[in-house]
Amino acid sequence: MSCPRVLRLLRGGLPRLGWELARPARGSASAPGAADFNSFVARTNTCGELRSAHVGQEVTLYGWIQYQRQGLFLVLRDFQGLTQIILPQDEAHSHVRKLLSNAPVESVVRVTGIVSSRPPGQENPKMPTGDIEVKVETAEILNSCKKLPFEIKDFIKKSEALRMQYRYLDLRSFQLQYNLRLRSQIVMRMREYLCNLHGFVDVETPTLFKRTPGGAKEFLVPSREAGKFYSLPQSPQQFKQLLMVGGVDRYFQVARCYRDEGSRPDRQPEFTQIDIEMSFVDQAGIQGLIEGLLQYSWPQERGAVTTPFPSMTYEEALADYGTDKPDTRFGMKIVDISDILRRSDVQFVQNALSYPRGTVKAICIPQGVRYLKNKDLESLKESAKSQFNQEVMDMICRPDGSLKSLLTKLLGEEQQSELMRALNVQVDDVVLLAAGEHKRVCSALGSLRLESADLLEAAGMMLRDPTAFHFLWVVDFPLFLPKEENPAELESAHHPFTAPHPADTNLLYSDPTKVRSQHYDLVLNGNEIGGGSIRIHNAEQQRFVLEKVLKEDSEVLSHLLEALEFGAPPHGGIALGLDRLISLIVGAPSIRDVIAFPKSFRGRDLMGNAPDYVTPEELEPYHIQVSWPVAETEAKKN
Ligand code: ASP
């Protein structure tokens, strides 16, 4: 069933329609021209709209007072931009002047007046409305603003906690307005692509469901039946597969998902996925669909998306980048130097290579001598030790081209130059070398590769182009991995519904650890932005995986297993993490910057103060009693 890449290009790579999203340039956050922002309301224009062509027109604007100056003028702001408003100085309009000049900043007002050209020399080329001003004739204060906890200006730094406590004020900033509007437009384009161009059906699935085995921790919701709880789904996985059994054929949903993962940086307990499932599809089909989807919905201002995306196996990703989500925007790849050092007398190298999965690997940090301080090198080595229990040795390339390291004495001339050739070492480069078990060595060097890239960039080297977007498919993952807490047991690398690689199906019954899966991840600039798989559609195979390999109680999934017995079509799907995708597109440091009302690092809503206590009376219908930890009982007493 596999469809060639060329075909995929033709099917998925549809031409993009001309649409434009303005950058949040100073004084402008304008959105596409086609929409009518002034329908159904009394304003004639938005605050970002007026130009020289409007001179002479009477206009009515609504907005917030961004700035005002000595009873002479003020700047009015709305979601689309800024307009300069000139206050009348004549006696007949003194009440208007007083009204507006007494209104505190961020009060919301209506002004009606005449658009005029700014006096020559007073135009502001940085402002899209900078050629004009509005001479106000009548005005109304619609609501006055009390003293603000912080100024609504992008350049004013405020703590994230304060921004989240007053999120509705933070939302007034151009940056957040821009992020939310861009997000909305991208989702709109995705809907168009999926529903209108490819026949997908938008189906909502329940958020009150039951526990799913394996995977992330789920939030529980008490029910009125004693001892019974709903779970909030970590994804609509079971429902989307059941929709395929139900003959829906092509499903998608902008799905809210929930994971009770505690406090983890840049994770949200609730987040959004573009969730997709298709019948009669293979891996190449899903990949083509997603490439076309991203190409179609990608904002023009961020450059074109080139398809097909490159692809790498999990093994290659681990060997060359030390991670299953390689950042391919820069080199510094991990190089296997086992064969070069195998002939040396270096004891720790020989030790490492004597184990079955033993290896010696290295990365070369370009210009490390010039860009990294000694303490940086020390902290890199320390981090490999503390995070991966992996010793790392450094080597420096001197100005005369020779290597300086504890190792050089033990290596012959020939080995040294082979090493330098393999790693392409130049003068002033630093090499980090690690020997040991393959996965640990790769993971440690992969992490050092990223840490040193950050250090090089902090010191002024331009390594990763901030405007570049590198998509990458990672494929051929193992189907099962040893459990971290008990390596003798296996868990699904993705989830238990993932089908084995067709070439490895027989191994499922003889050596499950060797089975590759039909799971694929989509990586963008070193971040996993999506993942999915072709599913098991055979009930017997699914039961075998659950019971025999994963040792799960298949009873919790009896509904799904039964459904697979009633003519389930072959199917597969994927989910894109919308929050992360948008944050990468807009270059936001955190996913919280693209979510209207995000939770804090600890999973709290700092504005409404959720989660919150409830009274014992409210808990009674749920047959729940809280056993208070001592500290909290004391705190409640005080
Ligand atoms: N439900 C999966 C996830 O959330 C995605 C998929 O397999 O389609 O990771």
From TrEMBL:
The family database entries (CDD domains) matched by this protein are listed as: AspRS_core, EcAspRS_like_N
Q: Where is the Aminoacyl-transfer RNA synthetases class-II family profile domain?
A: 180-598
Q: Which UniProt keywords apply?
A: Aminoacyl-tRNA synthetase, ATP-binding, Ligase, Nucleotide-binding, Protein biosynthesis
Chain coiled-coil ranges: none
Cellular component (GO) terms are: mitochondrion
Q: Please tell me whether the keyword Cell membrane is annotated for this protein.
A: no
Lineage, top-rank taxon, reads: Eukaryota
Q: Name one GO molecular function term.
A: nucleic acid binding
| Keyword Nucleotide-binding part of the UniProt annotation | yes
User: Which GO BP terms sit in this record?
Assistant: aspartyl-tRNA aminoacylation
Gene3D superfamilies documented for this protein: Bira Bifunctional Protein, Domain 2, GAD-like domain, Nucleic acid-binding proteins
User: One Pfam match, by short name?
Assistant: GAD
Which family is annotated? Answer: Belongs to the class-II aminoacyl-tRNA synthetase family. Type 1 subfamily.
Cross-referenced HAMAP family, in alphabetical order? Asp_tRNA_synth_type1 (MF_00044)
This protein is called: Aspartate--tRNA ligase, mitochondrial
> Which species does the entry assign this protein to?
Aythya fuligula
Instruction: State the gene name recorded for this protein.
Output: DARS2
